[in-house]
Amino acid sequence: MNTDNSHRGLLVRSLEIIIIAAAALSLLAPFLYAQDEATAVADRTLPIENPRFALQQGTDQLINDWTFESLKLDVDQETASGKVEVTPQGEALLRVPDDGRGVILEGTTETARGDLVSAPFELAPFRLVDVTVEYAFESGEPLLFVCLRPTADRGMVDLDFLPKNPPGTESRATVRLHSGLLQGEYSLAVSVVGVGSARVCSIEAREAGEYPRPHKPVFVVDLLRDNPRPDGELGWGDAEKFTKLFGFPSIEYAHYTELTPEKLAAADPALIILSPKSRDLVRPDRGKLTTAMNAVMGYDAPVVGICAGHQVLPMVIGQGAYVYRQAEDTPEGRKYLSEWGPTKLQVVKDDPLFKGFPRYPYFYASESHEASVSGEFQGADILASTEFCPTQIFKYPDKPWYTFQCHIERDWEFACPESYLFWKNMLRMWNLAP
Fold this sequence. Notes:
Blueprint: H1 2-42, E1 66-76, E2 81-87, E3 92-95, E4 103-107, E5 113-118, E6 121-123, E7 127-140, E8 143-150, E9 158-161, E10 171-178, E11 184-193, E12 196-210, E13 218-222, H2 241-244, E14 251-255, H3 261-267, E15 271-274, H4 286-297, E16 303-306, H5 308-317, E17 323-325, E18 327-330, E19 333-336, E20 339-347, E21 362-369, E22 371-373, E23 381-385, E24 393-395, E25 401-404, H6 419-429
Parallel strand pairs: 13-14, 13-15, 15-16, 16-25
Antiparallel strand pairs: 1-2, 1-5, 3-4, 4-12, 5-11, 6-11, 7-10, 7-12, 8-9, 8-11, 17-22, 18-19, 20-21, 20-23, 23-24, 24-25
Helix pairs in contact: 4-5
């Protein structure tokens, strides 16, 4: 009798274990399937047409299933607006070599750029993509880089540069890029900028998992105008890149006249951006500007300032800082000097900010300013300069703060691709990007 009860109890316990295990498996099955499915997606080779740029029927025309774009950016100094021209043949050129191996991309000026763009393919949002390129530098000192961009929005480009090697040395390198918020058609572009030529022999791309996104928002301090917009909207279009490309969950903002420590604390941002100004910022309220900057400086988050955002921190901190404008007398009257469009900047102090810059110790960035911060400012280290403006980049000691007189938020998709590396390097330093 005791034996039967013992067997019966063992049987009941075994059945209970089986039922619990089955229930657990049913709960885990979707997750396990999702993991398998994600792995399968990550292992997918992207369908790049003609990856070895093989000639079609002996023709020397543009490579089949690829499009060549020669880019030129003109800036109107009166309005600070830029106009981009895209033509098949212009300042940058595409050539088919005599030996038929690959294609030759050639630039003719320091900012001349050419993009060899693939036929589109489908990508889900925020997917990592490993792109492997076989290439060789042929002549001069060009830069070669790879872009991943949605066909619907060129401005959402992710890019990285290929290592430079001795001329004629064929190399193979892989860069890791990612798709943005947009789902659907993306294209790869192999691009050249600068004077000289490079041969591209093959390209392949594979998905490599999910791009890890920040969990907290970006907070933008609006310095674009004297007063908030009546509709309450942020007018700085380039701010969209922080959600669409870098994956921040949202953009929170406050006009500088309304910013308080309480607003910052409520937003709980991962990153604070001090915006540029526009022509609508004429007479800033100095008292409220000081209050806003004190709130920013008292909050524990990385800070990036751009143009006006580069100038306001020194004004509040003091330590010998002042903002000035250079002028000259002309037959037409007194004229203020300025910097506009793609401009060559010289690195004057090394920093992790410049990691991977292919033309180090100089680079190109977009400018649109008349005023500059004085070199007497003692509150930050100067990292880069131009003859016109010796205080182009500030790094604040013992703080995760960088500010830029140049506009690193724009034109990387056109004439200033190096500016994009600033964002990659800063976000990586602050654990906001892989």
